[in-house]
Amino acid sequence: MTGKRFLRTALVLTGSLALAAPLTACGGSPSADSRAGEKVVTVYSADGLKSEKGDGWYDKVFADFTRKTGIEVKYVEGGSGEMVQRAVRERTNTQADVLITLPPFIQQADGKGLLQSYVPQGSDKVNGADKSPDGRWTSVVKNYFGFVYNKKELAEAPRTWEELLDAKYKGKLQYSTPGVAGDGTAVLIKSMHDFGGKEPAMEYLKKLQANNVGPSSSTSKLAPKTDKGELLVANGDVQMNFAQSRSMPNLGIWFPAKEGGRPTSFALPYAAGLVDKAPHTENGRKLLDHLLSEQAQQLVSGVGGGFPARTDVKPTDANAVELTRIMTGVEIFEPDWADIGKNLTGYVDAWKSATGS
Question: pLDDT tens-digit profile of 157-187?
Fold first, then answer.
């Protein structure tokens, strides 16, 4: 589902590569050809899969990759949209080798010509809806949009969107900014689906604004506020929030329904593509192969708190069992990503108008 996304967290750089700084003493940049032999691969990614404690899925699979290949992973983290925009700015001096974002930003990256075709090993086991038909991107971790609530302050999760209009949520509810955060954009997508179109969704979100704390570029920062009781309800996504709940005991995951309807959600996978004119193209291919390997996919639930992208990998660890329970009874719909990609600016503008944001 960035802030999982133009900016969901502040940029995080790991390793010794400072991408914003000149890469040579004279301030110039080495050509892609001169860098092709380097034992390094640079990843631009939405946040959620790397842990500050060093025990996230990225931490594990990147370390395994380096041990296996000798290739060091340089990692840059931010919101999905922010990562796409950064890649756009660097088009004449490409820095990233692999781009990993959430929909609709991976489709946006493809539309901007930022990705080159590569079909990773194992991608034949990924559902067609979770990859592009031309091989420009493939999901590496399946995920779903959701909300969180404070289990200590609320005896049970809210059930409907309409309940969130209650005065008890005034100043205790927050969602990340649509068009800026991937999960914030997902609020628009889900509300338009649940309420039956743009106009009724905007009418609802206009009412909800009375309780909304205000804009947040970071979705990941809302979970700690919810766990502490500063918020009662916030948006998020299942993988990120499930992983966070290991250290946030008051965090519960839920899915709003329209009054009289069923709770709904939609797939919001982490999708990876090989960057066009990547300085380390071959290393990028090797990393994509590794991310979709059976070994890495088996770790998605147990380590990352997410769902394997490969349909032939069916983990049975405790996390996998709990994730299945969380999703039980939730109706999964498939957004029209082509429409969203084409009309996203208009939808965001309508939201800004409706909420006065």
Answer: 999 999 999 999 999 999 999 987 888 999 9
Q: Are 267 and 130 in contact (CB under 8 A)?
A: yes
Per-residue pLDDT band for 69 (boundaries 50, 70, 90) equals very high
Q: What is the DSSP string of 131-200?
A: B-TTSS-EEEEE-BEEEEEETTT-SS---BTGGGGSGGGTTSEE-PPBTTBHHHHHHHHHHHHHHTSHHH
Of 82, 124, 128, nearest to 101 (Cα)?
82
As a three-state string, the secondary structure of 103-141 is CCHHHHHHHCCCEECCCCCCHHHECHHHECCCCCCEEEE
Region of 214 on the Ramachandran plot (φ > 0 left; ψ -120 to 50 alpha; else beta):
left
Residue 320: its pLDDT value, please?
A: 96
Per-residue H/E/C for 6-28: CCCCCCEEECCCCCCCCCCCCCC
pLDDT score at 6? 34
Contact call for residues 270 and 102 (beta carbons, < 8 A): yes
pLDDT for 142 beyond 90? yes
Q: Are 118 and 292 in contact (CB under 8 A)?
A: no
Run of H or E including 65: helix 57-69
Decide if 240 contacts 223 (C-beta within 8 A). Answer: yes
pTM given for the model: 0.83
Q: Residue 36: its pLDDT value, please?
A: 65
Contact between residue 41 and residue 251 where contact means Cβ atoms under 8 Å apart: no
Angle between helices 337-355 and 182-195 (to 10 degrees): 90
**b/e per residue 103-127 (b: at least 16 CB within 10 A):** bbbbbbbbeeebbeebbbebbeebe
End-to-end, the C-alpha distance of the chain in Å comes to 22
Q: Give the H or E element holding residue 66.
A: helix 57-69
Confidence of residue 21 (pLDDT cuts 50, 70, 90): very low
Give the residue carrying structure tokens 């890495």.
296
